[in-house]
């Protein structure tokens, strides 16, 4: 009898250990807290709407509000003034707030632009060199401005070789569509809009500059300190959403298209310009040190140098690794380490 009791207890302890191990992969969310995530009209960030529509936040017991900002710069202001817990953000826009002491960490790379940013020109301008002396527009001090300088550099030119005009990215796309300017640097969906005119064509895209434009998820230090389980579970939600995207590409595209207010077919085309990052991609980009844009700290430094050159920041961060908290993405490796990110180009062509 005593042996039977001991056997039952041992079995129960083993089951407890097994279920505890499973639970450790998805830590319990802090009850009652509403987490507000800022998003904007950039392709990769619509993945959050897959999570929302497919009930993935509820799966982890998370109470999440996705705050959509039609004007991207408004989302930066909201996060920097403490109105958001997390934000989807371009790398270049992390430098100034970091220098100013805004408390946050980069916790994940969403994607690299792989054609979602481009230099559009009127058809008569066949090469970048043909833009010499012509009116080229984009928003000053943004990643599109940085991208424009890199495009010009590829042709042995500088900003002084063109008539540069400062214009918001949204307005740049509209002006290009209306034929009011000679060329514009824009991101999606303004890129597709500008290319919607038969009078325009694509001269240069971010597919020509791998790693130049990574898009990130940042979390406030307050959220990381007080509710690290929520941060971890939100990372898990993102990768569950990518898994759903892989298995149900049409439904995933429909979820994103609803928020973007475009058709499912248009959404697939827009998403094709983003190289979504797997957990493995994240870890390599954060830890595999090299002097190239495939290494996030290098990209941050080079971007900061650009911002300093145009007097948008005073200093270049001495150690960009201090801006990154890789704890959560490394913890996700156990569960999602073998997962591949959706191939957005293939899904668009399929």
TrEMBL record:
Query: Could you say which residues form the signal peptide?
Result: 1-22
Gene Ontology cellular component annotations, sorted alphabetically: membrane; periplasmic space
Keywords of the record, alphabetical order, are: Signal, Transport
Domain (SsuA/THI5-like) ranges: 48-252
**Taxonomy, superkingdom:** Bacteria
Name the PROSITE patterns on file.
PROKAR_LIPOPROTEIN
Keyword Cell membrane belongs to the record: no
Recorded hits in InterPro entries, A to Z, give:
ABC_SsuA_sub-bd (IPR010067), SsuA/THI5 (IPR015168)
Subcellular localization, per the record?
A: Periplasm
What GO molecular function terms would the record report? Answer: ATPase-coupled transmembrane transporter activity
The protein in question is named Aliphatic sulfonates family ABC transporter, periplasmic ligand-binding protein
Record-linked PANTHER family: ALIPHATIC SULFONATES-BINDING PROTEIN-RELATED (PTHR30024), TAURINE-BINDING PERIPLASMIC PROTEIN (PTHR30024:SF47)
Q: Which family does it belong to?
A: Belongs to the bacterial solute-binding protein SsuA/TauA family.
Where is this protein chiefly located?
periplasm
């Amino acid at each position: 009898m005593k042996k039977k009791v001991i056997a039952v207890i041992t079995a129960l302890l083993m089951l407890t250990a097994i279920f505890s191990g499973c639970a450790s992969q998805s830590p319990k969310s802090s009850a009652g807290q509403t987490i507000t995530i800022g998003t904007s009209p950039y392709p990769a960030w619509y993945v959050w709407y897959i999570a929302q529509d497919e009930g993935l936040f509820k799966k982890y017991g998370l109470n999440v509000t996705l705050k959509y900002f039609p004007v991207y710069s408004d989302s930066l202001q909201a996060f920097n003034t403490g109105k958001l817990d997390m934000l989807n953000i371009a790398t270049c826009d992390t430098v100034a707030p970091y220098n100013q002491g805004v408390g946050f960490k980069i916790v994940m790379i969403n994607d690299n632009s792989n054609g979602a940013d481009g230099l559009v020109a009127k058809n008569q301008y066949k090469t970048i060199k043909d833009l010499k002396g012509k009116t080229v527009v984009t928003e000053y001090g943004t990643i599109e401005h940085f991208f424009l300088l890199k495009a010009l550099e590829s042709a042995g030119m500088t900003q002084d070789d063109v008539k540069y005009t400062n214009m918001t990215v949204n307005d740049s796309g509209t002006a290009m569509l209306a034929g009011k300017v000679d060329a514009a640097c824009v991101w999606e969906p303004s890129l597709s809009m500008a290319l919607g005119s038969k009078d325009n064509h694509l001269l240069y895209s971010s597919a020509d500059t791998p790693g130049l434009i990574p898009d990130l998820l940042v979390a406030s230090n307050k959220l990381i300190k007080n509710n690290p389980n929520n941060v971890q579970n939100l990372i898990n939600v993102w990768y569950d959403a990518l898994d759903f995207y892989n298995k149900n590409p049409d439904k995933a595209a429909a979820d994103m298209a609803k928020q973007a207010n475009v058709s499912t077919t248009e959404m697939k085309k827009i998403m094709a310009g983003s190289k979504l990052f797997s957990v493995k991609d994240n870890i390599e980009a954060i830890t595999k040190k090299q002097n190239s844009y495939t290494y996030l700290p290098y990209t941050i430094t080079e971007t900061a140098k650009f911002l300093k050159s145009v007097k948008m920041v005073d200093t270049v961060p001495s150690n960009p690794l201090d801006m990154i908290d890789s704890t959560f993405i490394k913890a996700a490796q156990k569960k999602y380490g073998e997962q591949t990110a959706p191939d957005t180009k293939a899904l668009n062509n399929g």
